Design the sequence.
């Protein structure tokens, strides 16, 4: 895998973890903003899908 792609994947994975932490912190508050949590969850899902797409594109097809 290309080094630039690996760095981009690492950055996206770090953002995914950061979003997970933000969601957990907001959910722990007594009066949390449901719209903000929904927005963060949507962004997290988009990142997950993009990470998976990039990994699939860079994985060679090996026919067993």
Sequence:
């Amino acid at each position: 895998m290309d080094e630039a792609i690996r760095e981009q994947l690492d950055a996206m994975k770090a953002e995914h973890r950061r979003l997970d932490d933000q969601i957990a912190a907001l959910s722990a508050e007594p009066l949390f903003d449901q719209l903000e949590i929904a927005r963060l969850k949507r962004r997290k899902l988009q990142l997950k899908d993009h990470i998976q797409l990039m990994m699939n594109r860079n994985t060679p097809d090996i026919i067993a």
User: Anything to note?
Assistant: The chain has one domain: 3-57. The helical segments are 3-28, 34-57.
